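@channel anyone free to eyeball this complex?
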Amino acid sequence: MNIQYKKGVLDLLVFAMLNKKDQYGYDISETISRKIEISPGTIYPILRKMKDDGFVTTYLSEMSGGPARKYYKLTPLGLNHFQKLKSEWDELAEITHFFLEETND
Amino acid sequence: MTKDQFIDALRQGLKKHHVTDIDDIIEDYEDYYREQQALGKSEQEIAHRLGDIKRIIADYGTTKTHQKRWFDIVAISFLALPLLIILYGLLITFIASSVTTWAIAIYYLFNVSTFEFMPSIPTGIHLGYVVWMLATSVFFLSLSIRFVATLKSMTQQYMVKQTIRIGDYHIKPIFQKLFIYSMIISLVVLVIVFILSVIHAQSFEFWHAWGWFQD
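replying in thread with the prediction:
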């Protein structure tokens, strides 16, 4: 897949995962890097930027028997940002579809 | 590259880029190593999968945040809190305006006796005023909804980042439309009602003809 496409949607994918539930940092990077073939090292800087922007917070969760895992949680500010990104994405997808259908004829 | 080499190189690189709170970043990579090692991957494989370390460091470099000085924080607090309080006061005014205009419209429509201090309007034309008041009421209502979204965003920005700015906010398109259309309708009806009133009273100052503001 085109690298520009991947980079453009990474934020949105991370937001979408966090919107469902709090996520273990490792699960975020693994889930996304498996699906769209991107190195996991690309996801962590994105998470960090989201934290600096106040879109997510982190907390450590003790697992039974194992070491503490770092979890990411969406803030209300992050939720607003996600809704905005999502509506922009929907709009873009609609426009793209329109042109693809047009040129198919 | 072993795990220790990777973590060390990452730490050094981040320091060089003046990235703050490096331990917080390292935690993520230690989690990653731990999980992958549990799956039986070797340290070399993991480092390879994580990708080019220089690129990772560069990615953090571009996300470096501006460190606030104490002066900025004090100055912003002095400004932001009064500003936010004033804006919340304004919001209450908008909501009150919406309720008031709605009540006035109801009064003129049904001639409710509790508002007899209101100036009288000749029958017929009073319907124009009812429409105008209703449109204004809807306008203030949608203005309030918009304003709540803006204020919420500003408050969150202030709480999280100690800055005064309007962040992202989301309003349902229906409220956007309501806002614009009610504003247009309210203004158009105002002009129409004014013209009708002037014609009816045969005077540009129709309020004198109708005996308003007289004790």
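from a first look: Helices of chain B lie at 3-16, 22-38, 43-50, 53-62, 70-110, 125-161, 173-201, 206-209.
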